[in-house]
Amino acid sequence: MAATGAGSPGRLVQYVVVRTDLVHQLSWPLGAVITQACHAATAAIHLHYGDPETQQYLEELDSMHKVVLGAPDEAALSNLAETLTKAGVAHKLWIEQPENVPTCLALKPCAKETVQPLLRKFKLFK
Q: pLDDT per residue over 107-126, tens digit each?
């Protein structure tokens, strides 16, 4: 089976959206923020492990595709989580404990074209 190209219809992608203010305004170490993204991505895969798209994504282990986007602050991240929930898009909002701080969210792997319209206002994480 040939791997699907990045722009091909049906390309499975896992989107991760990370708060940029954690690094730029709140001075979190970059490693700590990357760890939050890893937690969210792993949790989303775990929660939706039985999903056919998740299984297909995992079967293509050497060609998995993730996109990491930046949300400017907690409000933007929370609004996105609400939008995704209303649209029926499976995701995991990662809340760092014991601080109880929402830091990022990860969508379950899904076809890029089905969720990209909901994520258009978020740019690549820098």
A: 999 999 999 999 999 999 99
